[in-house]
Amino acid sequence: MSFGQMLTGKRVILHLDLDYFFAQCEEREDPSLRGKPVVVCVYSARGGDSGVVSTSNYVARKYGVRAGMPITWAKKQLKNEDAFFIPVRKAFYQQVSEDIMQRLHGYADIFEQVSIDEAFLDVTQRVSGDFRLGEVLAKEIREVIRVGEGLTCSVGVGSNKLVAKIAAGQNKPDGLKIVKPNEVTNFLYPLPIGELPGVGKKTEKIMIEKGIMTVGDLGKYRVEELISVFGKAIGTYFYNASKGIDETPIQDGKRVKQVSRITTLREDTRDLKAILVEVHQLCEDVHVIIKKKNLRFKSVSLIAVIENLTTRTRSITLETPTNALNIMKTRSQRLLEGLLQEDQVKIRRIGVKTSRFVYDVHQKNLTTFIK
Question: Per residue in 78-90, pLDDT tens?
Answer without folding.
Answer: 999 999 999 999 8
